[in-house]
Amino acid sequence: MADVRLSGVRKSFGAVEVLKGIDLEIADGEFVVFVGPSGCGKSTLLRTIAGLEDLNGGAVSIGGRDVTGLSPADRGIAMVFQSYALYPHMTVRENMGFALSLAKVDKAEVKRRVDAAAGILNIGDYLDRKPKALSGGQRQRVAIGRAIVREPEVFLFDEPLSNLDAALRVRMRYEFAGLHQRLGTTMIYVTHDQVEAMTLADRIVVLNAGRIEQVGKPMELYERPANRFVAEFIGSPKMNLIPAEVIEAGGGQVTVRTATGAVMPAAVKAAGAKIGDKVTLGVRPEHLSTQGPGGALTAKTTFVETLGHATYAYLDGGDGEMLTAQLDGAERPTQGQSLTLKAPAEKVQLFDADGRAFERA
Fold first, then answer.
1. Helical H runs in the chain?
2. Which of 349, 354, 316 is nearest to 235 (CA)?
3. Spatial distance between the Cα atoms of 338 and 318, rounded to a whole number of angstroms
4. Do residues 297 and 288 touch, judged by C-beta distance below 8 A?
């Protein structure tokens, strides 16, 4: 097991700078997930840790050892890709032990490691099968097993569940969490799916345009996003963001008015807020309700999803603003119905003109 440290990591492809000075520390045994939109640099960052991409600046260390100039084989890492990349003519046992055989590891040791990995992944009954006789989930387990037998210091996963159907992705998320608990090895995982990030990570690293926007525990990012980008990216359905103007500030609260005239108080520190400032009001769908305290928004229902435990109402808030509200499953608004939606002040977030979050009161 080992910690991972990135210092000023930069990577360019021609004139395009993809990573713009990444500084990050990952603790020994931690499960860290990189998330961000397509093209943000998350897979490139993982590949720089693996040694599959040369750096244009900065350094990478694993277990206190500078590995910046080392080949992937000498870094003590094992990587699992989106593609299973199994040899079709080999059995599961042969696929899992192939790298060890190439390294001239004793046959008895290869068997021991393969059997141990198969036991961890519950694929012991498939060791004599070939990949074509396996399901997608079973093939992914074999790919993971091939990494486990190398007994690496760090596991790297590059969108390993992208080729699986929705139900199997849910099951495999559970298995990844269990795998980390059993092995206790440092794991770095790249995904575009923020649900995977929220359910698997000890900490999430949110990347945007080659820079880190925020690093923190899943609920820290959800409840206290550092800026508008993180607030909008983390959460499904995403946070409602509404342009507004400050009309009152003081006493541990800032009150804003939207373009449609709705007045909403937010329990944030008033330092730096002045009457007339342009801000963005943020409120998550589950914090909007038709009852309770707080400021109120009036919006017209345009579409309704009834899921049993919850009802999702999609609404036209006026002035081009579309809103989403997560209501109790017993509520069934109809299309065209006008709703008055309230949000407690402590659940309302504000972002300044540069997108930075106001500090909570």
1. 42-50, 92-102, 107-121, 136-148, 166-183, 194-200, 218-223, 228-233
2. 349
3. 11
4. yes
Cα 348 from chain centroid?
23
The pTM for the full model equals: 0.90
DSSP state of 67: -
- Sheet containing 57-62: which strands, arranged edge to edge? 16-26, 4-13, 57-62, 65-66
Q: Given the DSSP bridges, would you call strands 77-80 and 154-158 parallel, antiparallel or unpaired?
A: parallel
* Segment-wise mean pLDDT, segments of 10 residues, the chain, 361 residues: 93 96 97 95 96 96 95 92 87 93 92 92 91 89 90 92 79 85 92 89 96 97 96 92 94 91 93 92 94 84 92 89 92 92 94 94 81
Query: Distance (Å, rounded) from C-alpha 175 to C-alpha 154?
Result: 18
Q: Both tokens of residue 11?
A: 């990577």
Rg for the chain, CA atoms, rounded: 24
- The DSSP letter of residue 268 is B
The angle subtended at Cα 74 by Cα 191 and Cα 32, nearest 5°, is 25
The residue with tokens 């449609």 is 260
Cβ-Cβ contacts under 8 Å for 88 (sequence gap 6 or more): 130, 131, 132
If you count DSSP H runs as helices and E runs as strands, how many of each does the chain have, helices first? 8, 19
- Quote the DSSP letter at residue 83: S
What are residue 187's phi and psi, to 5 degrees?
A: -130, 135
Distance CA 148, CA 110 (A): 12
**What is the rounded distance in angstroms from the CA atom of residue 234 to the CA atom of residue 44?**
21
Confidence (pLDDT) at 176: 85
**The predicted structure's pLDDT at residue 161:** 82
pLDDT of residue 1: 61
At which residue do the structure tokens 């590891």 appear?
105
Candidates 94, 97, 99, 90; CA nearest to 72 is 99
Contact yes or no for 64/143 (Cβ under 8 A)? no
Looking at residue 91, its amino acid is T
CA proximity to 354, closest of 272, 291, 293: 272
